[in-house]
Write a structure and sequence with these properties.
heterodimer; A: about 150 residues; alpha+beta; two-stranded antiparallel sheet; 3 helices; 4 strands; elongated; B: about 120 residues; mainly alpha; 2 strands
């Protein structure tokens, strides 16, 4: 893998961490959403990271993946809904209240979400450092020509 | 040793190659810092460099290993941010050193050409 490939690899991680931050933001925004188009309260979403898929097809890509099997980058493999039961609160005046007067709210803990968001931001920063290091190395390599 | 003998150039080349390969591995470890079950990968830099310089005609392909002795988190991932950021800086500086050596090599060659005129 050449240094430009390393840039692509770090870019894949930046994208994955950004998607994770988006999902966390969506969870926080919908912390009080009591009904969705699927019915029931909003369910907390979680991202699962996995290795980037090798794009089959061209010869170059096949050769590169043969050499660089150890460097595959990362992607959001899937987004899963958290299966924990909703929190029930007694609010008889609420339009989504059941016959007993209880409303189901999504089981979202803001502290948990904020920690997740901070972790995503730190990992993002770490990958930005990697991009900067790679960029400096490419610039150094260019100076050989000068 | 004559200037046409480029064994020094070959040595610097394999050094640069190894430094950039390691940089890629470190970037990959950093990219996978939150991937469940991912284990830190690295090469034995000195050993692989020696091997590459013993047989300069060989195909470049250092052996990548999983690093032992790192603490695994509950999700099965053992990437250590401090270790990786240190190695990132290290491989970057090693690469710069290689580039500088290469430039100096060519500069000496250049001055030899210029002085003969």
């Amino acid at each position: 893998m050449n240094l430009f490939g390393v840039l692509d690899l770090s870019a894949s991680a930046l994208q994955a961490q950004r998607q994770r931050a988006e999902v966390v933001a969506s969870n926080l925004a919908n912390a009080e959403t009591t009904h969705t188009s699927q019915g029931g309260p909003y369910q907390k979403q979680l991202v699962v990271f996995g290795p980037e898929r090798l794009r089959a097809g061209t010869f170059d890509v096949a050769l590169a993946s043969f050499n660089d099997i150890h460097m595959r980058g990362v992607r959001v493999e899937r987004v899963v809904a958290d299966q924990s039961p909703p929190v029930r609160r007694y609010e008889p005046g609420h339009p989504d209240a059941d016959s007993d007067g209880y409303v189901s709210f999504p089981a979202i803990n803001p502290i948990e979400e904020m920690v997740n968001l901070m972790s995503a931001a730190r990992s993002y920063q770490m990958n930005v450092s990697a991009v900067q290091a790679t960029k400096t190395m490419i610039q150094d390599a260019i100076t050989i020509l000068q | 040793m004559s200037w046409m003998d480029n064994s020094l150039l070959n040595q610097i080349e394999s050094y640069l190659h190894m430094a950039s390969f390691r940089e890629g591995l470190v970037a990959n470890n950093i990219a996978n810092i939150d991937t469940p079950k991912y284990h830190t990968r690295d090469i034995d830099f000195e050993g692989e460099l020696r091997k590459a310089q013993m047989e300069p005609s060989g195909v470049f392909g250092p052996e990548v290993r999983e690093v032992r002795g790192l603490v695994e988190r509950p999700d099965g991932n053992n990437v250590d941010m401090d270790r990786e950021s240190m190695l990132l800086a290290q491989s970057q500086l090693m690469y710069r050193l290689g580039v500088q050596l290469l430039r100096d090599h060519f500069k000496i060659l250049q001055s030899a050409i210029n002085d003969s005129q």
